[in-house]
Amino acid sequence: MNRDEKSGLIDENEPKLSVREQCEILGYNRSNIYYEAHPREYHSTEFREKVMARLDFWNTTEPAWGVKKLLPLLEKEGLHVSRDLVYELQAEMGLKTIYPHKNLSKANQNARKMPYLLKNMRKNNLIWLPNLVWAIDITYIKMDMSHMYLC
């Protein structure tokens, strides 16, 4: 018998056999009888973007605040979200909570140390014209209903 057939045989109002005894006879886990699947909420893109905007705001103002501190703030702002959704959106946005980690001052012995290549050029005045040295940065820009990255 499959799971649904066994579940249909168990009668919770049976006066002679308890639910436990019926489950033991059928070799069926009692927790399956009481289990109700929790429906996963699928939020609209608009709602997710609102939450992402607020997470971005709070991450820039208070980068040390984690999900436990952010949830009540989002609730006050009328955004009812779960802890899992906040984790999911933070991972999607690449946001990480800043906190002191263990042994940050110790360098990894296997780590390759990269030299500062502009040091000698600056000492010898080899950088004296515009466009001799370039740099790049990536910025997150909030749009009406989405976001984009600017390089």
Strand content: 5-15%
Count the beta strands: 2
Q: Helix amount, in percent?
A: 40-55%
Protein structure class: mainly alpha
Task: List low-confidence stretches.
Answer: none
- Characterize the largest beta sheet: strand count, sense, and whether it forms a barrel: 2 strands, antiparallel
The best one-word shape is: elongated
The topology string of helices and strands comes to HHHHHHHEE
Number of contiguous helices: 7
Mean pLDDT: 85
Terminal CA distance reads 60 Å
Question: Any overview of this molecule?
Answer:
With 151 residues, this protein is mostly helical. The chain has three domains: 3-34, no CATH class; 45-93; 119-150, no CATH class. Helices cover 41% and strands 5% of the residues. Helix 4 (45-61) packs across helix 6 (83-93). The radius of gyration is 28 Å and the shape is elongated.
